[in-house]
Automatic annotation (TrEMBL), chains A, B:
<protein>
    <submittedName>
        <fullName>Monooxygenase</fullName>
    </submittedName>
</protein>
<keyword id="KW-0560">Oxidoreductase</keyword>
<keyword id="KW-0285">Flavoprotein</keyword>
<keyword id="KW-0288">FMN</keyword>
<dbReference type="InterPro" id="IPR013785">
    <property type="entry name" value="Aldolase_TIM"/>
</dbReference>
<dbReference type="InterPro" id="IPR004136">
    <property type="entry name" value="NMO"/>
</dbReference>
<keyword id="KW-0503">Monooxygenase</keyword>
<dbReference type="Pfam" id="PF03060">
    <property type="entry name" value="NMO"/>
</dbReference>
<dbReference type="GO" id="GO:0018580">
    <property type="term" value="F:nitronate monooxygenase activity"/>
</dbReference>
Length: 378, 378
């Protein structure tokens, strides 16, 4: 297939797979799609190890990375900042709320335990800059920013290295801001998407963003469609509306290669499309995820209110680590707490497949859908 | 074009136009689409007049009607029930809340005025039965139920008259219930749709409903896609996912033929896709509409809480009549109150066109979109 983004990024079939799992990235890129490593919360050393692992296995196929660098963050990075020092800034009532919740679900309290949420510091800008130092030493073909405008340094480094910069947006207005700043590829992500998302659905947002960016600057800005897409027919639908490709996430979560827990995999396969919720419970920003005792607790009258980044994610990580461990040991009560980012497309997933099979099925379903719709008008 | 629903309903181009305006119904059916009269709140005599008007002008082209008969209603119809007697059952604090709101927007109070909201009784089951008596005396080709399961009488009358019965749903589970009851055509309506809608987006709901109904019974149940569709490329996208046609509403609201107020038309053309909200403010049930001072007032701390049908719609009608009149006389403050059901697709509308032109543009855009996407794989 040939869309402008195929030429720009060297991909055959413009199916973009966002995943935190390097195995998925490699499998998708080798199968003819485009794997994008979600590099949130990695230290520079960890990212170096991940990218080296990918380079050794991807056989020269193109891949990218996605850095979620919050445009707005409630604390600034400072020398010597650690997860422990950040943890001390969490208000006592939030520690108490989380401890009480854990106890109700039969899990040991959190606040007394040593801090093991090292990833919080990875959200800081300084770490992001050092991660970019690492990323640009590897043959990445695409770098994507997920939380607002990218830092100017991402644009500058992308230009210097010849690596296109992408950005996720949830509204036409945000797409215009991104293109004006110099972003090369827009990912228009509908409200049905897993993770951080806006209010507008993929069906409306995709044509709206395409129309909006067509009015900015002289060159064509490719738009990838995201939100709800877990099959080739949906990808074909998005491209029929004018998208240059599809950006996907949820469909890779229950694959063989995915590193999510068995508990989470089972919950995903059982979930209906109505079982997700757009909530601040996991990250402090509105993000779609599975509804669980965790999202519901924060809506109760005794909730102390959501914290901002990076604090809410620290609480979430602590609880999810403990709840997952207890659930895997057989606790039904702990299982109720466990959740994760996922889009409404989860309702369409009910098998565990290899990532390679998912790519192949996308290709086949894409072709079959277009053939079927073409026949109707023939 | 030939989809199963084209054969079933005798339509050339399976674009369904839901409208409360008979002019739109006639214009769409004559242009090769399928007009569906939203017959909510008509008395049997009014409906008789509307359908006779349509029959005289539609030139034998197929059309249908949509009755929103609430599956659950807070009061039962009883002999002698009038809008005035219903109005007396509205709690005093709700009258006071509405009066205070009107005063703040420079409009005369409501509770002291004579009742002019005769349409409330039209929501009652008994009126619906008498409206069906009327409808089945006309050459309708399709009858659709919009609020839950249809009464058994609609299925029985449809069977007897050879008129297929359709139903709007917002989830796969509801689609299964409808097909099991005997409904012939499912309208899968995503959360981005105007009016009553569920949580799941069109991009996810359409393939989900198609998959769900394929498992019920032996025959093929056509599925129409609804929610966010205001252009041919979006219709093509829905049909690429396997829909048999597209069901639309918002796109007809700012047309030349539409009977909405000039104030509302201007607000629609100015609105972005993010300016709608799923609220109980207008009908008592969750329905997507333009965000306005009316929807916001009900979310404030002094709100007395939403009423159920038919009471909340009575308050809404009273306020919208007064606010629209005052806004048309030039009051900016009254204008802030005015709202109406509309989907997120409103963000893509920015011209006043004839309904005939809209149908023609759908056809052209549909064909162009499929040609463009086909070229990518060639």
């Amino acid at each position: 297939m040939r869309t402008p983004v195929c030429d720009l990024l060297g991909v055959d079939f413009p199916l973009f797979a966002f995943s935190h799992c390097r195995d998925v990235v490699v499998a998708v890129s080798k199968a003819g799609g485009f794997g994008v490593l979600g590099a949130v919360g990695y230290s520079p050393d960890e990212l170096e190890a991940e990218l080296r692992w990918i380079d050794d296995r991807v056989g020269g196929r193109p891949y990218g990375i996605d850095l979620a660098i919050p445009e707005n963050m409630s604390v600034k990075y400072e020398q010597g900042l650690t997860s422990s020092s950040l943890k001390q800034r969490i208000p006592p009532q939030h520690h108490a709320f989380v401890d009480a919740l854990l106890r109700r679900h039969g899990i040991d309290p959190y606040s007394a335990a040593p801090s093991d949420e090292d990833r919080a510091v990875g959200l800081m800008h300084d770490t992001a800059e050092r991660c970019m130092d690492v990323a640009f030493r590897h043959p990445i073909r695409f770098i994507v920013q997920a939380l607002g405008l990218p830092p100017q340094s991402m644009i500058d480094r992308g230009r210097a290295a010849g690596v296109p910069v992408g950005a996720l947006v949830g509204s036409a207005e945000h797409a215009i801001r991104q293109v004006e700043m110099g972003v090369d590829v827009i990912v228009a992500q509908g409200t049905e998407a897993g993770g951080h998302c806006g209010e507008v659905s993929t069906m409306v947002l995709v044509p709206e963003v395409i129309r909006a960016v067509a009015g900015v600057g002289a060159k064509h800005t490719p738009v990838l469609a995201a939100g709800g897409i877990v099959s080739g027919r949906q990808m074909a639908a998005a491209m029929t509306m004018g998208a240059d490709g599809a950006w996907t996430g949820s469909v890779w979560l229950p694959t063989v290669e995915s590193e999510i827990s068995q508990v989470m995999r089972e919950k995903f396969l059982a979930a209906r499309s109505r079982d997700t919720v757009r909530s601040r419970a996991s990250s402090g920003k509105l993000a779609r995820q599975l509804r669980s005792a965790w999202t519901e607790a924060w809506e109760q009258p005794d909730s102390p209110g959501y914290l901002q980044m990076p604090f809410q994610p620290m609480l979430t990580a602590a609880v999810m680590q403990r709840a997952t461990k207890a659930a895997e040991a057989g606790s039904e009560s702990a299982r109720q707490l466990v959740n994760y980012y996922v889009g409404q497309g989860v309702g369409l997933l009910d098998d565990i497949k290899s990532a390679r099979t998912v790519v192949q099925e996308f290709m086949e379903d894409y072709a079959a859908a277009l053939e079927r719709v073409q026949t109707l008008s023939a």
